[in-house]
Amino acid sequence: MAMARGSSGLAYPERFHAAAAAYAGFDGSPPDPNSSKFSNEVALLLFALYQQAIVGPCKIPKPRSWSPVEQSKWTSWNGLGNMASTEAMRLFVKILEEEDPGWYSRASNFVSEPVIDGDMNHNPKAESIIENGNTFPETKTIPIENGNLSDAWDKDAVSESFGAVSVYDQWVSPPVSTPRLKARYEHGAAVIDDKMYIFGGNYNGRYLSDLQALDLKSWTWSRVEVKAAGGEASPVPVAPLAGHTLVPWEGTKLISIGGHMRNPSESVQVMVFDLQMHTWSTLKTYGKTPVSRGGHSVTLVGTSLVIFGGQDANRSLLNDLHILNLETMAWDEVDTLGMPPSPRSDHAATIHAERYLLVFGGGSHTACFNDLHVLDLQTMEWSRPTQQGEIPSPRAGHAGVAVGENWFIVGGGNNKSGVSETVVLNMSTLAWSVVTTVQGHVPLATEGLSLVLCSYNGEDIVVSFGGYNGRYNNEVSVLKPSHKSTFQSKVIETPADSVSAVQNATNATRDMESEYGMGQDGKITEIVMDNVESEPTVHL
């Protein structure tokens, strides 16, 4: 929940005023819950957020009248406390977008800014963007200058130059042929063989349900055909959704878990697409199914999916943990030990050494985080270890992918702007470092983008797609991570006595701390979370 998720390319506060105009009327008066077309709860919340954004925290005394409407309006506004005006604006737009996706079309007549069409390219020379097609216009790349992603497009850089790229740890744009697929954010992404699959997402306040594939050899998009299952006359309709997670399974299947929908079910939805049969189906699961949610994290660990956090259909933030065994299809709600992360959504999670679940960042309704939490999946105990190196700024809506023991984090926002740094965490040392920084209003400094790891010409590459940073993006960017010690922070070279000092460091919140194991060379080699009689143990 980092940057505001408006439906236009307008910047704040103009986007908020456009939304308020669409809902409250064009006289500048606050929305009236008494005459609202929404439910009482939503109308009161919109009223309170409007007041918080325009006036600030509620300073007026509680009304003495017996009017239940006036009492409810005051209670709703007062309940926002000291929420920042920018956050109130963001939430107002987000809620209006969810409740009334067409608000911007009504407000656009009063807005001088042009609407960025998701079916148009965002480059100076517009290109048609069709979800499926066979034409292949001119290719483009983004040059890197001084380690930064330039806003300029080098039309002379063709595909063979990308294939021979020798630079590491810098973002470039591959020669993706057009037509490109519709811009979006909060979509699902997964790689199987030589294709990156994109499913669903959010564009202009409307949830999507298409399944697309990017061929990572030819860099061409195509729409994946969906067929009817055996015995059915037509394909099973898939509800449009966003904020879900797409996971590759068994080399031939894509599993979609959760997501926000217009008409959400009570429990989380688990769908599977068979790439051989080209059919969608709902997975039948057993046990206590988690409540419906979006903005959660799903991590594949062996043959199980670990689901953490997110936001439910009532906009309540979650910090519960559930595990789905893909062999038995049985859910297990896990009771953990230690101090779990606070309720949040739009965080990133990954697995290290097939044992430790790492959760970084995310957001609440009022703040973004940069905390790091680790769950030992053997003991089911949370800890909050001390982070080392260049600790990233708070963010939410970022994306992450693990390359060996290095966890790359890209994008996200902090309630003001998109985060421009690509950072990496060495999961053995818990040391952060900055890989590169992009400049300008580019898709990498955005929220709701996807990030996957795949192979290109026999080397690992990290591929990003989409996102939202005031406009909806459909750009593809590629980073080739170095396999040298580039990401190994200076902490790794710290002598043994300094490592002991790190081991003795405690967190101000007194959360359970992790300790570090050392190899014979005096370097930190693994995370150790085992506890014996409440005392940390160091494994050598």
Automatic annotation (TrEMBL):
One of its GO terms (biological process) is lipid transport. One of its GO terms (molecular function) is fatty-acyl-CoA binding. InterPro entries: Acyl-CoA-binding_protein, Acyl-CoA-binding_sf, FERM/acyl-CoA-bd_prot_sf, Kelch-typ_b-propeller. Pfam families: ACBP, Kelch_KLHDC2_KLHL20_DRC7. It comes from the Eukaryota. SUPFAM superfamilies: Acyl-CoA binding protein, Kelch motif. This is Acyl-CoA-binding domain-containing protein 4-like isoform X4. Residues 12-105 form the ACB domain. One of its GO terms (cellular component) is cytosol. Keywords: Kelch repeat, Lipid-binding, Repeat. Belongs to the ACBP family. The keyword Repeat applies.
